[in-house]
Amino acid sequence: MPSQADVAARSLTVHWDDPMIGASAAKELSGLEYLREMAEGRIAPPPVAKLLGFHFVRADQGEVEFSFLPHESHFNPIGSVHGGVISTLLDSAMGCSVHSLLPRGKAYTTLELKVNFVRAVLPANGKLLCRGKVIHAGGRMATAEGHLQDEAGKLYAHATTTCMIFDTRAS
């Protein structure tokens, strides 16, 4: 096994736009309008999406989809994608599915997240799709589910969330 000194160092450079521009736009649009503006590139994605390599595919009422290409920069110490990266992807998709139902002036935050890891995620798996779908949306609380699958439909992880809905004018 080669020593650390014998292995070429790798690097990752990440560029992002001012996240407060998008955050301000979120207060002026309905959730679905905001997400569609982001999916169509008129509003920059949040820095976490750039950092971890998530890409919007679509946003509909109560459903969103992201794509994700696993990379070695996502690895845990044993050489597979870290569960925290997968959890963040699922949390983002489920939360955005809730956001897609919110009117202007409302926002959400995750209260609870439960993730089930079904199999290891590796770069060899190719592009993965993460779908979030609302199960229930009330005035103050919403629940959603998420699935991370490859393009053939093989499941890698699934999750559920509970989100609190609040008025942005009060924050």
Taking all Cα atoms into account, the compactness measure Rg is: 17 Å
Order of helices and strands: HHHEEHEEEE
Helix content: 10-25%
Largest sheet: 6 strands, antiparallel
Strand-residue fraction? 25-35%
CATH architecture classification: Roll
Straight-line distance between termini: 54 Å
> Helical segment tally?
4
Low-confidence stretches: none
Provide the CATH superfamily.
Hotdog Thioesterase
At the first level of CATH, what is the class?
Alpha Beta
Number of domains: 1
The rough form would be described as globular
Quote the average pLDDT.
94
Quick recap:
It is built from four helices and six strands. With about 170 residues, the protein is of the alpha+beta class. It has one domain: Roll (Thiol Ester Dehydrase, Chain A), CATH 3.10.129.10.
What layout of secondary structure does this protein have?
Layout: H1 19-28, H2 31-39, H3 47-52, E1 54-60, E2 63-68, H4 83-99, E3 106-117, E4 128-137, E5 141-150, E6 155-167
Antiparallel strand pairs: 1-2, 2-4, 3-6, 4-5, 5-6
Describe the protein's architecture and organization.
- The chain has 171 residues and is α+β, with helices and mostly antiparallel strands.
- It has a single domain (17-170), classed as Thiol Ester Dehydrase, Chain A.
- 25% of the residues lie in helices and 34% in strands.
- It is built from 4 helices and 6 strands.
- The protein has a 6-stranded antiparallel sheet with strand order 1-2-4-5-6-3.
- Strand 4 (128-137) and strand 5 (141-150) form a beta hairpin.
- The mean pLDDT is 94.
